[in-house]
Amino acid sequence: MSRIFIFTCLFFSFFACNTEEIDTEETPIGSSKSGVVATTSDYELMGSFTLSSIENTNNLLLTLNENYVASTELPGLYVYLTNDANSVTNALSLGPVEVFSGAHNYIIENVNLTDYTYLLYWCEPFSVKVGGGDIE
Question: Which candidate in 45, 48, 59, 84 could, as Cys together with 39 as Cys, close a disulfide (CB 3.0–4.6 Å)?
Fold first, then answer.
């Protein structure tokens, strides 16, 4: 019985840590917009980003560049696409922030490049804006 438990733990540990990388050089990119994330709080949050359509799909690629930094002290930090720079009402959640520095990507399905005008960072536990940037 203990061998099955150990095997199960090892199996799930391997797959839980195995994340798929997005090869941006192999992804066919169409039109793009960009912006700069800036903090609106006492916490560090900054960096530039590009939002690009992925050719032959209805998907977007959000690329946060190498200069991106977010404080790890922020509780419950989430990222959204929105048209209201101060609210998550009618916003599209991209999920909790899991990378706090350096370049990384999000694939956003079934969204057009013109659907949203702002990238918003939001503290879920306190329902407060932490920062963001215009998508231009």
Answer: 45
